[in-house]
Amino acid sequence: MRSIPPFTYPALFALLLLWSCNSPQPEPPALNIIDSLPEVETYPTVDEAITAADDANQQGGDLLYEAPMEAVSYYKKSIALRNKLPAEQVLTPEQRFAVQGGIVKGYFNIALCYLEVNQFVPARAYINKSLDHIRMFEKEGYNEPKRAARAYHELGKIEGKEGNTQEALRLYSEEKIYWDQMSDEDPDRQTGVFNWLSDLSALYVDRREADKVISHAQEAIAYAASHPENTDFQLGSTYNNMGYAYILKKDYPQAIKYLDMTYAGGEMPALHNKAMALRSIGRYTEAHDIADQVKTHWDTLVQKGGSDSAPLNKKRLAGSLSNKADIYIDQSEFAQALSLYEASIPFYYADSTKSLVYDKPGLVEAYEGKAKSLKGLQRLDEAMHAYNDAIELINRFKQSYDDAGSKARLAEITKKVFEGAIATGLQAGMGIEQLLSYSEQSKAFILLESIKKQQVVEGIDPQLMESERRLRTDLLDLERQLVNETNAGIRLDLVAKLKVRQNELDALSSKGSTPINAIFN
What we know:
It is a single chain. By secondary structure, the protein is an all-alpha fold. The protein has helices at residues 9-22, 46-63, 68-82, 93-116, 120-138, 145-161, 165-179, 187-207, 210-225, 235-248, 252-262, 268-280, 284-304, 311-330, 334-344, 360-376, 380-397, 404-427, 432-454, 462-484, 488-509, 514-520; strands spanning 7-8, 90-91. The radius of gyration is 26 Å and the shape is globular. The termini are far apart.
């Protein structure tokens, strides 16, 4: 950092105030506005204030993963203490750097708290707040590129999870600019570049683009190997990405090779994926044993209750039940499969209102598996009911995709659902008109996906498209808040808001252009 002349804290406060008043203010997120900072005491000296702020930041760090919303209050306190230094005291360059860096870190750490509970709207807002301060402080000589790099990285991950691949890639490109400003001998830079490569591979896992997953994962693994002295590289998720990519390519022995590297440390996602790979090559006994381990793990956490029974664990339990049922399907043991699919379905829902589904494609797949099991048991009428339930969900979910991975999975499953419904309908002696209806719905869905993929938007009002995008963003944020909320009153309020937003989206969809609406009708 270049030399900076001493200055008084009131000058910093005046600069902050001037910047905030004259800079263009982005429109606040629809559901979240950054909260004000708490009132804090004024310490006699600058060093005492900085020490107190650092202590508050450390307390937040201790709570980040166990009680993230409680950690937020400590991070806000750390920022407030830095904003309330003793008046008229001159700051040395080191003290000034500590103040500026602490504010930047404080806002970023608050964002991490919201990411921990999958609330992307406030997380994005606080990351941007951190970046705003970085840009402002850089004009005064502040220079710590890893802070900006990490901010862009987390923004890229958020966009990736929401299916906005191009925006995620743009943000990852911004991140790389900052890592390139640092020496490759810097351990922080090494870890950052590795995570950048590994998360690029994860981005394409969601897109189900196996070759790109493998390319970026291999680059991450090679980079880690070139820095053997760094022990911070978390290779497990990278190997899991590789394993899943080879499952997509149907190269199951290669998939198992990489998944074995991952789950040596007890990684549940890798065990889940290994059971899938073993099933696909007919090693059913091994597949059952591993699937049982995964199912028991998530069932124990859910049954335990408390903070360990987080809603997302229910999603994982649902997936593990369906995964084991898939093995029974391949073995033609339909009664066992049916029991597991039926057991999995309630865990995909947040509560009895069924307003929120944790894994939309997974739920459709469970109904499709239930239908296949019923067909195998020659209970054809019930099988057709299950297929119709799956189709009803498809028609509901295609209006509210939440990420690219869901889009790709649901498109694949949709084809299986309609093919299964037609085959079962033929066996059940169903009329030709109903069978043709299934065929036309399947074609319409594929056509819709093609239109979306090619971004054919001629004749669509841009304002309507922007309103639709905002509503979908609001819906997703409400869903994620509902996933992590335990207070019954707040949950009811969130459900009510969800219904309002969904009604607004339905009303907006009725105003869309003829070509797209014709596909739905």
